[in-house]
Amino acid sequence: MAKRQTVWLSAMMILSLMVIGYYTVDGTLAPVPTSLSSDGKLMQPQAQGSGAQNSKPQDQTQGTQNNKATDAKQPDNAKAPDAKASDGKTQQQGQSGDSHQTMTGGDWFAQRFIDRETAYSQKVEQLQQVIADSKTSTDAKIKAEQDLKSLTEFAQKAEQAENRVMEQGFPEALITKDNDRITVTVQTNDLTKEQVAKIYGIVSKELNVPASQIVVSYKP
């Protein structure tokens, strides 16, 4: 008899558990929120008490790491060049590599014009000597004559382009050439994008060169 009562009680307990399981599966009980870990495995959230305690150290750790990362980046940002100079197309003259950096606007341009004309005269004289030398080969003479013609034409076109650029409101404009690179320097405290685009258009048209070969700079 005692054994039957034990079996009956066991059966009732099993039945009760089945009923609880039915209501749980049926959706009567609210589901527990779950989340995925970084490796894709399902994670059960911790109890509210322990989760709140664990979240604070984690936030503090993340904040410390972010601050360290920010501090590590600050020296690089401090060394970042001016936005206008970073693309290599618009630069301010008078930096460390400029031998006339201590000169003010008008004097700087005057000296640069003298330097350019001196270099031009020396190049012309050199080519004329090659052409006049009886020992110069025919091919060398032809090349020297072509170089002299190109040099003279560039000087004339550069002067025209400078005048047109100054018509845009700049007191001075200087064009120099280094191999295929054309540098245009104007006297101003700053340049807008519209002004730079206008200078590109003028110089590209007057000298018949692509804009990719032109560098626009300014000198206060």
UniProtKB/TrEMBL annotation:
- The keyword Transmembrane belongs to this UniProt entry's keyword annotation: yes
Give the record's keywords alphabetically.
Membrane, Transmembrane, Transmembrane helix
The top of its lineage is: Bacteria, Bacillati, Bacillota, Bacilli, Bacillales
TM stretches of this protein: 7-25
Top-rank taxon of the source lineage equals: Bacteria
The residue ranges flagged as biased composition, category Basic and acidic residues, are: 70-87
- Kindly give the InterPro entries that the UniProt entry links to this protein: SpoIIIAH, SpoIIIAH_sf
Where does the record place the region Disordered? 36-105
| Name of the protein in question | Stage III sporulation protein AH
Q: Name one Pfam family in it.
A: SpoIIIAH
Which segments show compositional bias classed as Polar residues?
A: 45-69, 88-104
